[in-house]
Design goal:
49% of the residues lie in helices and 19% in strands. It is an alpha/beta fold and 138 residues long.
Length: 138
């Protein structure tokens, strides 16, 4: 009999934006040593259906600038998946975009624009994973 895996495979979803983002996020987090699968959700309607079937560990919401989609996503998750961390995902980093995302209720704002942004993604993922693990233990 084989020993159980020490690290369960986490699941993250990317809502909106280019589907390629899922592969970039998954490859980066796997390269950083995380066991994760990342799926793509086309739109808010599909997200509602998906949340009815199961919950990811983390949700990325893609917008060029945080706005209506992020706001609606956070509201939907508050009703169907309370406690699910929602991250704002955009093509570039800026203090104003991060502030807007945090103001709307996102856990953070991440980008995929360069190596520093990918390092930030890894650190945010670690933080949110730790929060989720501690929340389940309590």
């Amino acid at each position: 009999m084989s020993a159980p895996s020490a690290q369960a495979t986490a699941v993250a979803w990317v809502l909106g934006g280019p589907e390629e983002n899922t592969r970039i996020i998954e490859a980066d987090l796997r390269q950083a040593g995380h066991a994760i699968r990342v799926g793509w959700i086309a739109d808010l309607g599909e997200l509602g259906d998906a949340l009815d079937r199961g919950l990811p560990d983390l949700l990325f919401c893609f917008e060029f600038l945080p706005g209506d989609l992020l706001k609606e996503t956070i509201a939907l998750c508050a009703s169907l998946a309370p406690g699910l961390p929602v991250l704002s995902l955009g093509p570039s980093a800026s203090a104003s975009a991060t502030l807007a995302a945090l103001t709307l209720g996102a856990a953070d704002r991440v980008t995929l624009e360069d190596d520093h942004a990918l390092e930030h993604l890894d650190l945010v993922y670690r933080r949110e994973s730790q929060r989720g693990r501690l929340g389940r233990e309590l």
